[in-house]
Amino acid sequence: MNLAAHTWLANAAGFNAAPTGENFPLAARAGQAAYGWMHYAWRTIWPVGLTPIDGVLVDHAPGAALFGWSVAALVGAGALCGGWEKGRAQARFFFAAYLCVLVPMLGLTERPHFPSDRYAALPQAVLAAALALGLARLNAELARRNALAGEFAAAAAHLAEVQRLAPEYYAKLRANPPSAR
Asked: Which of 15, 61, 157, 170 has its CA 20 to 30 A from that of 31?
């Protein structure tokens, strides 16, 4: 645990009142929320260096590069989910569900806020459901393509057999023409 988080925890005698707009402005809250959303996504994808208390949000400036990158990544993920043609509705739904599930864990009324890695389990359920749905749709698409490929293979085999038998059939037809009606 880093020194700033340890010091804050050691000095905290109880719960403090929620910060006001003066000492925790909207830009700082938005930066902290964006960091929280990306923190939990990143911990889900790359779970290394997990800690019970992450002190990165103890004293932060909303204009810091970490928060700028978090906002950019969040906007990029939203644009990717919104701009994806085939699965746009599902991607937007799961993106919104992921964001909503994490709202209580973002520390919008806490300063300092400690994102806890144990809270990553709940949004992982949303991501797991999205992954399961995506794999099911992929499996259905692959099954449809395989069935279509099988039909084409059967048609090609039939045509190959017709081509193989055609000379013999036409030879018999020339030898015994059908009677004229």
From this structure: 15
- The answer to whether 90 and 154 have CB atoms below 8 angstroms apart is no
- Phi, psi for residue 153 in degrees, rounded to 5: -65, -40
Cβ-proximal residues to 121 (8 Å cutoff; 6+ apart), any chain: none
* Res. 146: pLDDT tops 60: yes
DSSP 132-169: HHHHHHHHHHHHHHHHHHHHHHHHHHHHHHHHHHHHHH
> pLDDT digit string (tens) for 58-95?
666 666 777 778 888 888 888 888 777 766 777 788 88
In 129-165, which positions are buried (b, 16+ CB within 10 angstroms) versus exposed (e)? ebeeeeeeeeeeeeeeeeeeeeeeeeeeeeeeeeeee
pLDDT at 110 over 80: no
